[in-house]
């Protein structure tokens, strides 16, 4: 009787095990992190989050990234997703000679994915990230085995409250092209600077303001002459009542754009002014005209006060004003933080981040309001400030 009972129990246990769902073996290879917690900024009526997801391969085999999904941590809803070429275009491998994300992430390597999300209101309380990848198994003797699919979820982050910094115009009138594009490999959005033992991204929300006319031209006459740029010498204005935290003048500029040399690390911003806004944030102006600075470190300024002139110093492809806000005064030593301009007029856009100086910009859609308040301009929008 006992052997028959034990046999029945064994059959029952085997049946239970067969019916139970199988669980994938845990994957201990990929570390996910969001070093800088994002806060939404307003862009043409939308809530936008800009942040970076860092992926580090802690395994012993290369990992080929296949897809990324951003999830609402509350209910698991997919808020955005990328795969294939769309995913590769959003990333770079830190320190690699060819930093494209298309190749496998080698053991010990770190990739950074640059994310921009337009999210509906109300903003999700927290986000999670799901990464899908294939891991190449190594056969004995170094031969490559099959590719095992895997996925990992993590890097949960609760967005901070919306940026509260509302700034006056840094320039007068217009039209001004607000030049930036998240997808540019060497654009502000993607360039880290490692100073004092920490890598930072000062230009996360940076804008290059380039003066254009109704036909989209950026210069009068010979465009290779820096002084012929439409914006060259335009007054640069304090965006708030503030204290000058740092300033530099005396760096020269080339008369011709084509003759402009490369500058070393410290001189890349050219002549600059950094204004302490009183809350741990700093407004940074770069590439100012030599001899144009009208303020000194420690001086108090009033919003709208002229602090310098638009120029062509430092690493610059042409005369323009570089503007960003960060949590440190030196131009390359802070983390870029969000902000908004109190008011500007939206005139149009350069679609696809191309055509600047070569063809007219496209007028704004009639269903988009011309007067914008408490917003950042969209990528490559053409705007006008009050005179």
Automatic annotation (TrEMBL):
Residues 231-326 form the M23ase beta-sheet core domain. Pfam families: Peptidase_M23. GO terms for molecular function: hydrolase activity. Keywords: Hydrolase, Signal. Residues 367-387 are annotated as: Disordered. The keyword Signal applies. Residues 1-24 form the signal peptide. SUPFAM superfamilies: Duplicated hybrid motif. Residues 367-376 have a biased composition (Basic and acidic residues). It is an enzyme of class 3 (hydrolase). InterPro entries: Cell_wall_metabolism_enzyme, Dup_hybrid_motif, M23ase_b-sheet_dom. Transmembrane segments: none annotated. The keyword Signal applies. Its EC number is 3.4.-.-. PANTHER family: MUREIN HYDROLASE ACTIVATOR ENVC, PEPTIDASE-RELATED. This is M23 family metallopeptidase.
